[in-house]
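Box 3.1 A note on notation
Throughout this textbook, protein chains are presented in two layers. The first layer is the amino acid sequence; the second is a C-alpha cell string describing backbone geometry. Keep the layers aligned when reading.
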Amino acid sequence: MNLLWIIVIKALIAFVVVMGGAAYMTWFERVVIARIQDRIGPNRVGPRGLLQPLADGVKLLLKEDIVPERADRKIHTLAPIISVACGLAGIAIIPFGPPFVWNGYVIPLAVSGSSVGILVILALSSIMVYAVVLSGWSSANKYSLFGALRASAQMISYELAMGLCVVGAVIMAGSMELTAIVEAQEWWWPILSFPLLCIFMITALAETNRSPFDLPECESELIGGFHTEYTGMKFAMFFLAEYAAMITISALAITLFLGGYMGPMVEQYPALGPVYLVLKLTIFMFFFVWVRGTLPRFRYDQLMAFGWKVLLPVTLIYVLFISVIFAAISPANHLASVETAKAEVSHGMH
C-alpha cells in the first residue's frame, strides 16, 4: 500500500508540474517573442503579466462551446481529450532524478520506471496523430480536414527520423530503460550524439507542429487548421497538449543526449537531479520560442522533402556509423571480461 501511495503522489506532482509548466509556457513565449520583436509583451494582469495564464484560463472556461451543425459531436469532443491525455502521459516515463532507497524499497524518481519507457513515449506521440485527424474529420470543415491530413503526414514522416535518433541512443547505452541510458553517459557521449540531438530537435519541432513546421495550423491558408471549429476550453486543450508535448519531448532529448538529471555533485546530493533537469528544460523551451520568433514558415513541399530526402537518409547513415563503432568495440569488451573471469577463477583455484 505504501508503494501505491508513492506512485499516486508522484503522478500528482508530475501532473501539476506539467500543467503549470504548459500554462506558463504561454506567458514565457509571449515575453520572449516580445523582446525579440522589440515589444512590451504581457504586462497588465499581475506583476510583469505573471497572472495572464490564469486570466486566459478563466476566460476560456467562460466562453461558449460552439459545435458546427454537421459535426460529429462525440468525436469532436473526444479529439481534444485524447490530445491532452497523450501530451500529459509521456512525462510519467521521464526520470527526474536518481533512484533512492526508502523503507527497503528502491524508488525511481519517475512515475513509471518502465524498462521500455522509450517505446511508451513514441507510442503516445503516435496516438496524438489520431486526435488531430479526428478533430479535423469531425469538424465538417474542409480547411480543418486539410490541416488534419497535413498534420498526420508530417508526424508520420518526421517520426521515422526521430525514432532512428532514439535507436542511436539505445545502441550506445545498450538499454531501453531511461535511467540506465542516463547512467551510461560519459564525457564522450554528447560529442558522439550531437548530430542525433540536432536532428531530434528538428523533428521535435515538426512533431509538435511548431514554427517553422506549423503547416497544419497555417493561418494564411487554412484559417486555423485542424482546430478551426473549436472554441472555449476545447480550443485551449489543443494548445495545452502542444506545450505539454514540447515539455515531454525536450525532457526526452535531455535524457537521451545531455545527461538527463546528471550534473555536478548529484551523486553526493541526489536532490540536485530535478534542479539540473529543470534548468536544461528551460534552455530547450527557450529554443522552441527562439525558433518561432526568428524563422519563417516552410512551404509544405519543402517540409516533406526535407524530412524524407535529408533528415531520414542522414540519420540512417549516422546510426549505421554508430552501430559499426559499437559492434567493433563490444567484442573487445566481451573478450576482456572473459579473460578477467578466467583470471579470477584461476586465482581462486590457487
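The beta strands are 100-102, 105-107. Confidence is low (pLDDT under 50) at residues 334-338, 340-345.
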